[in-house]
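Q: Two folds, back to back.
A: First:
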Amino acid sequence: MKVVLLLGSMLWAATTWSYSISGNVYKTDGSQADVQAACSAAPGGGTATVTIPSGTYNWADTLTINKAVTIAGETDTGVTIYNNNSSGDMIKAASGADGHVNLYWLNIVQVANNQGGVGFAISADRDDSSPYTVMIHDCKFNGSQVFSYAVQALANGIVFWNDVFIGDGTNGIGGISFVCDKYGYAGWNRPDASGSNDKSGLENSYVENCSFYDSPIACINCDDNSRVVIRDCKVSNPTISGHGQETSIYGAREWEIYDNTFTYSSSGTGPSGASYPVNMNSWVFIRGGTGVITGNSMDDIPFNKTGIMLNVFSITRGLNDGAGGTFCPLAYPAPRQTGWGWSSSSNAEWGVGDDTNANRLVGDSSPGIFGADGIGAVLDPVYIWGNSGTETTSPTYVGTQTYEPDNCQHGNQIATYLKQGRDYYVNVTKPSWTRYKYPHPLHTKFAVSTN
């Protein structure tokens, strides 16, 4: 009986794990189970590489990576993985104190319907107390079949380069969603880290030399507490967007959009299969936080659409208090609004310290929790300058709008909250701002060549 059990155990092990080891390389058979087994067996510390041989694979589970390893395709174009996980993330990668997680040469096609945000092709996180992160580069994400972002970044400091993101074209999203609500209020309530103020290179996430296609609603979503740099990318018929505190708990903190090429296609067929033109409304659609938009080339979006749209939706839509309540601003400035940042001298959660400047939605008499004194919140205007292309000569190059309907019923108008020359500047250089070093040091150190 013991012999039979032992033989059965040996056969199970032999048929379950197929990876082979040569030095620091763990070569798998490409199945999700075998890749997981190799990742679990490989040492951390960034010394091991788990490879996937060229071929086409269907993954319907979650690959968990919680140590410093490299996961790579055998060649730059040979590996295609169909994401059939409809209930969670296909790859969940988190870096810790032992080193970077490095992912490259993966061609991922989204098949499972994850419209409810139940899962992503890759979900990336990091231990912010360490000098390490998750790097996703030289990959391709095809989301043309599903209304979903391909990648979710749960922390600031995630680094992308040389990736291709194809949206779903018709409905209009794809790409990366930055949702860093794990930081709580402290994540938003930290001073500026833009440009050269990022001393570690990991205070912001970086998206550089990537290509985005056919996501007219959003190819990048800058959401709760996110600090994102988008630079030297090709943006073909998508919108770079974000959320304020009206629908998110904290809203976007900082975004830097520079040296990108925005291309509008009036005819033909996109990589998503959608016929051009797709329903573009803006190149950049901002709802909170602050940032710079400079050095970009922008085609004009016809039909009087606005190239760069700045908003404060909360003044008519209401604010999300994070506890199931909704508050409405009564006076300028609205909490975490576009063109405002944070003072390092305050620990106040909402940026101010009294109840005089807000109330619940009309009909609810309970008090608000932020006021007009400005404690913590500091004016930190948006700067837009040095862009080129036909969009920059359009009368609708930069615009603002008041969200409708007016759920708050206070009659607030965007002109009170967003004033050019105060909350945002057009064709004015941001004082003392300089670009963070390019390419990102991790891009330089971990660059790979095609084979």
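A: Second:
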Amino acid sequence: MKRTILHCDLNCFFASVEMLYHPEYRNVPMAVAGEKKLRHGIILAKNVLAKQRGVKTAETINDALKKCPELIIVSPDYMSYEYFSKKVRKLYYEYTDRIEPFGVDECWLDVSASISYFGSIEKIVNDLLKRVKEEIGLTLSIGVSDNKVYAKLGSDLAKEDSACCIESLDDIRYLSVDKLLFVGKQTADILKARGIFTIGELADCSISYLQSFLGKSGNTLYRYANGIDDSPVAYYGQNCEEVKSISNGVTCPKDLKDLDDVKIVLTILSQNVAASLKEKGLYYRRVHLFVRNNKLEVRTMQTTLDENSDLSKEIYDNALSLFIQHCDFSLPYRSIGVAVSKLSSIKDSYQTSFFQESSYSIKQQRQENAMLEIRRRFGKDSVNLMRAYEDSVLSKQVLKNADIQFQSEDNQS
């Protein structure tokens, strides 16, 4: 049976989510970007008005502001992006169980077995476009083909809130070679230096010729250009790498010179890590603390819990204990990070004695889950512990610029 593969790409995803929380951004040029003062000044996403003014993803904030001086810069809210990404994937699951993510805002869907049930591929595509827009408030671009490579290219070619079908090489022969999946700037420059400017010209080359200057990737690019790709779309959740650790760290906007400042930072970092744990349904047993002073000297420490947990409070308590035991303020601290490891999807059943109950607090879990749901609905600044407000400038900057990292078995360092 000929396959039918969709590639669904959420349009201007980060910016679109921000506009759900802040409708006023719909009428002004706006971009999501890292904090300029902390050297993370790269445009991550932009809305349509910013795009019309020439703002591009991955350029610096300074370059973007030269093109569009009135550009509104918004810091990323990764917790919200993950939340909406999962909402969209749950909707996809109503049409197929073959859903393979390609980043937080893109997925391949194999709907080959679903067409007879829904009636036609057109019905599935139109349903997805309509439901994502009306039920979630976002828009899609959908590519349709019989393989993943052409489907991805189709979504790149499709306009916002629309679909593009690629049936054969003839449909894309005259497109620039750098439009093809995994042909980056360096590879494109190598190809163009040899007179290969279009996908069609790449497809017409022999494999041996391409391998003579591209090595093994020459065979891959030949197959991709010709639409020869039988790689399956994974079942929902199948290709998710096993997460080995989750960390959250930040370079602070000022040197930390006392324990009160450290407590504010640890509160926010611990909450961010716990939120990611809960999103993935994981529990940790080991807590890590990383500190770097203003001389760029790094120190790491860790502790192991008797019983695993997903609570923010336990991350905070253990990280603070590590800091008090092993650190002083002979030099101020510039960066702090917390991490959790020894992760499991199953909660321990732990009891120290017949008379002693588990240390895990159901009441604390309910409180943290309630706060997390409020943040999901109303934004990450909508509610917080009082400790985080003791220095509003520090807490605001840490909330904006702390970066969550997921470490898998394959990329552990």
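Q: And?
A: The chain is about 40% helix and 20% strand.
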